[in-house]
Amino acid sequence: MAQQDSIFIGASRKPDDSYQRPESLLLKYGNRHGLITGATGTGKTVTLQILAEGFSNAGVPVFCADIKGDLSGIAAVGEPKDFLLKRAEAIKLEPYEFRETPVIFWDLFGEQGHPIRATVTEMGPLLLSRLMNLTNAQEGVLNIAFKIADEEGLLLLDMKDLQSMLAHMATRSEELSARYGNVNKTSVGAIQRSLLVLEQQGGKNFFGEPALRIPDIMRTTPDGRGAVNVLAADKLMTNPRLYSTFLLWLLSELFEELPEVGDPEKPRLVFFFDEAHLLFNEAPKALLDRVEQVVRLIRSKGVGVYFVTQNPLDVPETVLAQLGNRIQHALRAYTPRETNAVKVAADTFRPNPDFKTFEAITNLSTGEALVSTLEDKGVPSMVQRTLIRPPSSRIGPLTPEERRKVINASPVTGQYDQMVDRESAYEILLARAKQGQTAPQGETQASGGGWTLPDFGGGGSKQPTGRRTAQPRASGRQTVAEAAIKSVVRSVGSSLGRALVRGILGSLKR
Question: Using CA atoms, how far apart are residues 157 and 307, in angstroms rounded to an integer?
Fold first, then answer.
């Protein structure tokens, strides 16, 4: 049923509810982004699951979050249950085969997957300010902290590095205020208190080394399928701001690291942003503008971003306008706001004369959706009322034993499990206080083998050769050459030097 150039989504229905035609997502438009919306219990997770399966089977790696824990079943073979077989027959899915999908589990807390980390330096002041909900004045002080760290060669890797940097600034507040403006101890203290709260919410586990290497979420298996990277997010969702900021950081890392590829025949990676409203809630306009810019430009890097949320109003219009592939599950219209949401959803589709889109959205059953994808020349298809195909993998969660088996067989086993604490700002400032000065040192360490890694433009090698280091390392991503270059950049106080270090969302560029 599936074609090599597309992903089979399901089958559309005629007005009399009989079979009409297959509905598919063309792989060459997979990087034109997408939107999956619908009320709770209408089938959004299963839709995400079948899309992840489809991209994986086409050799496209996927990154997604498992909010409730039930998406983990994608790593297990599905079971031929009656309701699945009936759906497959209704949409003429022949043959309907059951198979597992290659999965790599990740977890910020290191409990249900491989630990996933970033350094404070890589996160940058903009996203950290958003994470800690800082005021404008406090964000300004944090920016100064990063500038001083860059100029003085102080690596900010984990939370104690940033805490020691802030304490160092407090002792130099008068000198720094004369150079950069008001750096008062009150603002520094407020940031330190926010860091303490963040640490208690799990930030201590997230910030540090070894930091996540982008090629490790872009692996393919020996049989050519893309790895589905599943982030365990049920515990993480107790801190929604950390969840959304982490995903935004990862998106910005992809944007900064991947080379331009134009319009490929299929995406290089597909990124599902579940509970997308958490990204936009109470976000300042400056951040929203930059998110819009990243979404608009990351397409040319070969990355497709799919937002998953309950209500289309959760996504700003400027971002919504860039989402070409849309799957709309049922919405209810009991209140004026809900009625407006249904109207907005209906108005974004190309009308179908066979039915009224507004009425159809409120009458869809579970596992049914309105589907519009980009056709030839990138034109949105006419909206179709569609029965979504059943997944080939399991619907429902893995058992803890099954999850552990997948984790132990992962190609990144052993690379991220142990945190590395190398010399950085904390140690340097401590040594300066005692006896003088030390210089930060880079470390390199080769990692083990695994599935095929992406080649960022380096002659077909299986090792990554992107803007960051070409050699994977368990202790970080800084080679001796990079350390020397960054040392030079830090020593240049000009705005040009700083522009070479920070990207659109403030994350570190290599």
Answer: 30
